Amino acid sequence: MNEIRVGIVGLGRLGKAHATNIAQNVPGAKLVAACSFVEDELEYAKRELGVTETYTSYEEMVDSPNLDAVCIVSPSGYHPEQIRLAMKKGLHVFSEKPIGLDIEDIEKTMEVIQAYPEQVFQLGFMRRYDESYQYAKRMVDEGALGELTVIRCYGIDPSSGMEGFVKFAQSSYSGGLFSDMSIHDIDLVRWFSQKEISRVWAMGKNAAYPELDDLNELETGAAMMQLEDKTMAILVAGRNAAHGYHVETELIGTKGMLRVASAPEKNLVTIFDENGVVRPTSQNFPERFRDAFVNEMKEFISCIKEKRRPEVGAIDGLQSTKVAIACQQSVETNQIVEVK
């Protein structure tokens, strides 16, 4: 199999990033089809990426005889059904996180995935494919930090996107702050510790945009977690970072500690001017994790060609979503919630 023919559903900001990578940055992959409800997005795919098949119906796209795989970057609530349909059509599937928003729906999807062991399924936890996080993971696995005791994660989107999010939240449900954003950090906690999360206590506050209270959405949230071996994890998630896109992770162990991106620096440039000494920072996730997005898609294509399973699978999606839902329940009840 020389070239993997891929169709993509969803051409928003992240969808365009994946589409561009498949079309231009991933050897052995060819973007042949795109699906969107927005005509301008389909025109973009044809004009800029050379897509030859465009669809407004996902069902019609996965019926194309010219596809080997699909990349799902649609709204979160559509993921389970679209995964199941693609698997039943004999296609390999890459799906953005989360794998779903409802546990029973996810379990139903996992049954379908397991029924087609010859097909590759990979979930989009791209931070596992970031060079800095991989370096940190090797240190943990080699015992350089000793036994982990605390994991702290920050994931805060730039404030420049808040007004757009409020408008989105008024017409749609994102899945909530923890399912939509913290799920990446939840996955990192599981990945670094190799343990499951057993209980959570979460809270939140809407300060700059109190209208989110009526929409059951959070501007800023935090959670304290206990893992099955009593390791502690602390998450902070938000949508209102004035300085840019802030993703930071700290690992504390019995022999030492490390931090990944304690300052979200864009590059190695330092500017000296009337503003003082300034270090530019990353402004959005496509910029900060540009290489990670490419690396995860390369892995997906390699797994198809080499007939092997990727590291990130459906079980990671299920377990992370269980924790995210527990965090939301904790916010709503103001109680510690056990993760079953």
Automatic annotation (TrEMBL):
All residue ranges annotated as the Gfo/Idh/MocA-like oxidoreductase N-terminal domain in the record: 4-118
Pfam families, A to Z: GFO_IDH_MocA, GFO_IDH_MocA_C3
Gene3D superfamilies associated with the record: Dihydrodipicolinate Reductase, domain 2 (3.30.360.10), NAD(P)-binding Rossmann-like Domain (3.40.50.720)
GO function terms (MF aspect): inositol 2-dehydrogenase (NAD+) activity; nucleotide binding
Keywords: Oxidoreductase
InterPro entries assigned to the protein according to its UniProt record, in alphabetical order: Gfo/Idh/MocA-like_OxRdtase_N, GFO_IDH_MocA-like_dom, Myo_inos_IolG, NAD(P)-bd_dom_sf
Every GFO/IDH/MocA-like oxidoreductase domain range: 133-259
GO term, biological process aspect, one: NADPH regeneration
EC nos: 1.1.1.18
A Gene Ontology term for the protein's cellular component: cytoplasm
Superkingdom as given in the UniProt entry: Bacteria
EC class: oxidoreductase
NCBIfam families referenced in this protein's UniProt entry, alphabetically: myo_inos_iolG
Record family assignment: Belongs to the Gfo/Idh/MocA family.
Protein name, as recorded: Inositol 2-dehydrogenase
Species name: Niallia endozanthoxylica
